[in-house]
């Protein structure tokens, strides 16, 4: 398999298992001090104590447990020969292209060492002293050609990444690493360099010894290397005996080898198989970024130079999420691989299958589901490629249509990207019958297809008329080198969310309708200046020339690659849209916070209101007065108003009466004090002790029952009358609350 250098940002064959994530794994419960470190002579080198060094020294102190020297500011051409790094556990040096050697006495306690994409040629002879090393990452080291047998002394090693190196063989001592869980290796030794000392690429017993604990295994080889042909069968046999394997990547020159792996691949969480004999091409017709996208999926199958359709391929295809069919010799339709085997596919890449005439043959699909279906029964048939999200086609000489299906055919409802490149016989893209399936399609790229006249094919010469809106999610439309293109949608209303449209070398596309440019979110129209200046705008439809379209037009630079410019605009637009979305999200967050605060405030007020009215407000109940429906309402309100004024007038008079009463009470109190002074220590009756004076209403004094004659005589001497109108409930309060009460009121 060819894992291209452009994948340098990924340290792993498999998505989600990148060695770059090791920093999180290994820094758990450890100190992570990311020290900016530089070997410029006059630059300060800070350490954990806060002090700095001003010049390069032989002994360098690194007090951190984890150090990253990976960005442009902190790359190093060499490491100190005698570092003082007794605490160092994790060191990341990837992408230091000037780093060519590792000092022999460096980081003996290290557990994680990442040297990916450096120019080191070998590991130091002191390698066996790294007894604590758990992860050794050398991915993309182009000058690294030989792995020392001393690697077998690293008894604690759990992960070894030798992908995209130039090693010529794997030492037998690898089999001694009984804790090794991840092994990734590629053998792409360039011709003309040093020849291998061994005729065996990888020993089968090495895999056998590791099979009891190995979780991930990736072996990438040069297809022309005969040594792999000699050992692949034994390696596959040992791999299939593993009980712990969860991820597997292999190049299998013969499809029959898949029969052995059938015992294991259904249970794998990730796999990548390249099946078939092929030569490694210096220049591929498929762009490297597209192949990289193919490899980014969890379960990938690449079938190369096939002459038939083996049942073993169909078996793996059933479990695959990504399928690359490269240069198949005999297949006429993709349906021959079994549509039922591709229900889980999300990415489909086809290249140079020159006998293929159509991708999906609906009639073949229905025949495999039983008898020929009537139109009313089509809905009961399972949709075709129901999970597919990306479809890319390159250099298909005889491809005439993408799908040949009957009306009301359900297919590719989740498709997001459709890219068709260099298909000289292709004339039909969408038919009206299948167009409404593509509700999630966001991008269409149509390049170098000289027979295409419109995206939507139609048998009649008149434009189609429909009140439906098609391609509702389409955002990007790129049309390149289409000399016969005269219409985009053939009169149908499409793409209400279109953001960018690019046209190049489409000389017959001289007009566009509002049905094709209906989007309110259109931001860029890319094309040649002359093509845009000569565009005809139907006056009956557009009126005058649409100025808002003129403002968003961007000319293509003929001195640069057209597709590159369109991709750059797409990336720029994507970044702009992302920023706008982020800004809207931030504004939404603010509004959400305000709404939450408002909700809290309303809840607080509501709770306070509930506490305030916890008990029934009886004073409001007391003053409620019902209206008499049999009398005039205005008259009743007027009467109530008169009554209210009378009450208020009486209440205003009441304070003066109370004031007169208090004056009399004060005089009585003075008289009382005089009597007490005259009596001295004279004993009085126990009732008289409790009250020296009692002010009683003259109307109630006669009803007092005083059976004790002596008590009666004593009380009558101190009794003083109070006028009835001046006695109010409030006048009792002061005397009754005093502990030495001398005055009772009744």
From TrEMBL:
Keywords, A to Z?
Plant defense, Repeat
Q: What residue stretches are annotated with the Disease resistance R13L4/SHOC-2-like LRR domain? A: 93-274
Show where the Disease resistance protein At4g27190-like leucine-rich repeats domain sits: 340-449
Pfam families cross-referenced by the UniProt entry: LRR_14, LRR_RPS2
Please state the span of the N-terminal signal peptide per the UniProt entry.
none
Q: Protein name, please?
A: Disease resistance protein
Instruction: State the organism named in the record.
Output: Hibiscus sabdariffa
